[in-house]
Amino acid sequence: MAEPPCRLYLITPPRLDDLAGFGRVLAGALDAGDVAALQIRLKDQPDAVVAAAVDVLMPIAQARGAAVILNDRPDLAARLGCDGVHVGQDDAPLSEARRIMGKEAMIGVTCHDSLHLAMEAAEGGADYVAFGAFFPTTTKDASTRADPELLSGWQADMVVPCVAIGGITVATARELARAGADFLAVSAGVWSHADGPAAAVAAFNAEMALGVGERGD
Fold first, then answer.
1. CA-to-CA distance for 143 and 140, rounded, in angstroms?
2. How far is the C-alpha of 196 from the C-alpha of 208, rounded, in Å?
3. Of 5, 11, 58, 104, whose CB is crowded by the most CB atoms within 10 A?
């Protein structure tokens, strides 16, 4: 069966105080609909805490077909056996991340609202580029605001997939899918959804499908 042209990319909350409990929530969310990837993003946490999270969450995600991406740290991602790493503009350079992770790893790069940064990343061998923030977000401090037209412009000229990130909710998923996002990266929009994460995943998939159906209208 062909993969949907716009897929969900989950990002963990910044802290996981009940790792086992979150694992159960994650399993339920992944069972509720298509999810391409899980980014484990535990900011300012010791390596041992990140390693413990990967140990618990990676089998849950991979068993359900979701790739596991670690934020910021290619060295730790490689050591823990993650499927890939996501690096920001202030993290390890793409070339270093590739050297550490190997040619088969999935490496994504934050490009804010810049087509120039995205083209540099694509030419450097990134597996995806991430644009954002598209909406206000409480998960991280976003210094840039991206316009959905950025996604349309990228899709018109480039083949490297693009990820939309930043404050995305079920209510805004359709617009970004319509604009051309290959993936929607979501954290609070799923974990803090009023009806629970499983309902959120199902709703996101429904809205993304509607948006994809409206492309070119």
1. 9
2. 18
3. 11
Query: Which tokens hold the place of 152?
Result: 């349309």
Query: What angle separates helix 149-157 from helix 170-179, to the nearest 10 degrees?
Result: 30
Angle at 109 between CA 93 and CA 39, to 5 degrees: 115
The token pair at 2 is 């062909």
Question: Helix crossing, 197-213 with 19-30: angle to 10°?
Answer: 40
Detail the DSSP E strand segments found in 6-147. Answer: 7-11, 37-40, 67-71, 84-87, 106-110, 128-132
Q: What is the DSSP string of 116-148?
A: HHHHHHHHTT-SEEEEE-SS--SSS-------T
Whole-angstrom Cα distance, residue 24 to residue 1? 27
- DSSP structure string for 39-86: EE--TT--HHHHHHHHHHHHHHHHHTT-EEEEES-HHHHHHHT-SEEE
Cα 90 to Cα 143: distance, rounded to the nearest angstrom: 13
Residue 36: both structure tokens together: 């391409």
Tens digit of each residue's pLDDT, the chain (217 residues)? 578 899 999 999 999 999 999 999 999 999 999 999 999 999 899 999 999 999 999 999 999 999 999 999 999 999 999 999 999 999 999 999 999 999 999 999 999 999 999 999 999 999 999 999 999 877 666 677 899 999 999 999 899 999 999 999 999 999 999 999 999 999 999 999 999 999 999 999 999 999 999 998 6
